[in-house]
Amino acid sequence: MAEVEEQQHENHNLEKKAKLKVKHDKPKPWDDDPNIDRWTIEKFDPAWNPTGMLEVSTFSTLFPQYREKYLQESWPRIESALKQYGVACKLNLVEGSMTVSTTRKTRDPYIIVKARDLIKLLSRSVPAPQAIKILEDEVQCDIIKIGNLVRNKERFVKRRQRLVGPNSSTLKAMEILTECYILVQGSTVAAMGSFKGLKQVRRVVEQCMRNELHPVYQIKDLMMRKELAKDPELATQSWNRFLPSFKKKNVQQKKPKSKEKKTYEPLPPPQPPRKVDLQLESGEYFLNDKKKSEKKWEEKQGKQAEKSTEKKRKRDASFLPPEETVQRINNSNKSEDGKKDLTELTQALKSKTKELKKRKKTQEKVNAEDYIAVASAENSSKKRSKVTRD
């Protein structure tokens, strides 16, 4: 029974909602009108608010001291620009503040918010002619705080310079692509433009300062998107296949040198000996002044002699001839061949010496007269044979 009652209660609530929907969401004549553009921002007409503002709204902001002189010079121009919209402004140099407030002549209720943005931009070093453009309905502003995104000051300065680029080329490219005015000043980035452009600028700035993606890659992505937006066929399609995908590479950083932990010693280190203690140990303390001076002079002479010998050695070194570099044969085959040749030479020399020794021995035993006698006998026998034949 309880379940049935709950179901009936739910059905009753749904019927009530349906009735309310029908009552308040009746079709209106301008819903289907093709001539109406719902995205256009119509210019404010003072006739819409003839009575003016019921209450006085004021906004004030402080400005740095270095902006005091510039604001004092350009304040008449700012006053005249705000006077057209019925907004009063005041510059207080004692407190260092700017104040804007509505008057009886103010008709546009949102103009005071625009005036607040104007004094914010002026305090962030935006030039007055550029800052006055914020009073237009089409122009919006965004002041991005980047001081808290990076803790280390050196790293913060480096990343901020990365955002600006060499000769502010990166900043100019971003201004062209996003159609916004961008100014990097101190720990803030002031941007002026359309809502779409401001959203893109904020994304680029925050990702750059957090070291998530370099602004150059963001610019490439924006360029691709701008080209794709020109093609009407791609209006209903996904652009992921055309857009570049950048992967973050982890660059290897130098590892910090690990300091060796010293062993804990509860007692302090021993006190180094004094000069007097060293003299007492060596016995120098008990010498006379004359002997001390003699000892110092000897030490001085010894040092001079060492230095003179060293200088002489350096002078003589310039006159020495350079050492001849002998080419060493590194190949193992060549070294083995050389060894074989040496062994052969030694054997040949040994064999020659043996032969010479043998010859000397034979020469000592041979008698020259025997050889001469034999020769004379042979000659006489030859002569006799010749005579007989004749």
Protein described:
Residues 1-31, 245-342, 350-369 are annotated as: Disordered. Residues 373-377 and 386-390 have low confidence and may be disordered. Helix content is 52%, strand content 9%. The strands form two sheets. Strands 1-3-2 form a three-stranded antiparallel sheet, with helices on one face. Strands 4-6-5 form a three-stranded antiparallel sheet, with helices on both faces. By secondary structure, the protein is mainly alpha-helical. A hairpin with a 2-residue loop joins strand 5 and strand 6 (188-193). It has helices at 2-24, 68-83, 111-123, 128-131, 153-164, 169-178, 195-209, 215-229, 275-282, 289-317, 332-365, 368-389; strands at residues 58-62, 87-92, 97-102, 140-145, 181-185, 188-193. It is elongated. The protein contains twelve helices and six strands. Among the domains are: 41-137, Ribosomal Protein S8, Chain: A, domain 1 (2-Layer Sandwich); 139-245, 2-Layer Sandwich (Ribosomal Protein S8, Chain: A, domain 1).
